[in-house]
Give the backbone structure.
Amino acid sequence: MSDIDTEAKVLGKTTKYCLTSTALIITIGNKKPQTVPLHNVIAASYHSDARLLKIAYVIRLTKKGPLHLVHLDGQVEESNAEAAGNLAKTTLEWAYKDVKPNRRLKVLINPHGGVGKGVAIFNKLVEPVFRAAGCILDLIHTTKTGDAYEIAKSLPLPEYDALITVSGDGLIHEVLNGFANHAYPRKALQMPVAPIPTGSGNGLSLNLLGIEDGFDVVAASLNIIKGSPMSVDVFCFTQNGRRTISFMSQAVGLMADVDLGTEDLRWMGDTRFMYGLLRGLIKFKPCNVQLSYKAVEQDKKKMFENLNLRRSKNGSVVPHENQDDNSELPESKIGLDETEGWTTFPEPLLYLYAGKGPYVGRDFMAFPVSLPDDGLIDIVVQSTKNFSRTDVLASFGGAPKGELYWNDSLHYVKAEAYRIKPLSKKGYLSIDGESYPFEEFQVEVLPKLATLLSSHGYYNASFDDATARKK
Ligand SMILES: Nc1ncnc2c1ncn2[C@@H]1O[C@H](COP(=O)(O)OP(=O)(O)OP(=O)(O)O)[C@@H](O)[C@H]1O
């Protein structure tokens, strides 16, 4: 591919455009050339009647700042008209090389997610990006808990390319459960889902976009426009004979108190989780439950090596697999009374955290070696044996980078399934951040059942050798 060039006047300044196979390089007047990766270009067109070259892209204005939408309209001289038309056409083609342009999006906005700014953020920062990219939007504001579930349950699947939530992880939980109860559940769960992070924790967004972009709503919009479908495992959570889909995490003990015990402090944003942790540590109460699991791997070094192996395999791209369209959801493979191959955890535990996707919040990479589709659930168990309040506080400094993983008192297990039996009446149980009865339950992995949009094809979290070398 050879480079394609043209020239136009932007606000009276001569502007040079050079299209390479990976980027559009734009030089306005005497300014430094700006390199816009083709992934960030969302629209390009040439309007011959007005001789206008229109380019839209998202770019950082400062090195670590958020992404911003830029519309660049250039007036083209007669002599450059053909080159400008050619540049616009080829830019658009290359910018959408692997994805369908003009996606049709069902967008669910929770006006009360996080600190309640979802609507304003969507109108100001997100909708203009979708419109610039020519997406076709069908917007709904949720009015109460359960709306998103009902909408997903009866979604006319052929009408949309993706379902978008403007909220936190709670809305995703509802959507996936709505899909699981759709007339065509497998097909519904193939509908790509992606979040615009306006909730408190925004764990899924952090996992898809990474720590730098996880709270950036324009980066999330770009992922929705350009991301590819990625199959992911989800979990079947069974309690009192009822099956629920969990996509991110289950927590009991300290970590559930941190999440659910701080609901009244939503105004704090995600600072409420740190506050909750400190409050929970003052009590430092073991959680009275019996935990058993069907383990597949418990060797931390091996799990870390597997993560690296996977990353090194051509960017760890996880292909999207089409499942049987009209079939039902898979049956549970693991009986509720099965005991063969199961282990009961022998020590008192401060908390159990189990799930998929490295981050559960900005301050906590709970499952650093999690893989989107290994068919396993990562279980973290913090024993209170030989572990004090001071140890928790000291170790939480490294929590955003997943450093807790290497603590000897932290048990890390990859399992096919696990079970919790409460031994007391009172306690919190958090499923994907939502409150569930503190009663006996079992969790089993349902491999590659759901579909997310990802620009990377893997979880974008760096759990690097630096933490391993400390060992
Ligand atoms: N209009 C509404 N009014 C009140 N609650 C709503 C409304 N729409 C949805 N909900 C409920 O709000 C709850 C919280 O939403 P969500 O989890 O998405 O945000 P969050 O809790 O702020 O974020 P996170 O889960 O990332 O911490 C969900 O249970 C959802 O069902």
Remarks:
- The mean pLDDT is 90.
- The chain has three domains: 4-95, 104-226, 238-321+336-449+456-469.
- Residues 110-114, 142-145, 147, 167-171, 174, 199-202, 433-434 surround adenosine-5'-triphosphate (CB under 6 Å).
- The first helix runs from residue 81 to 95.
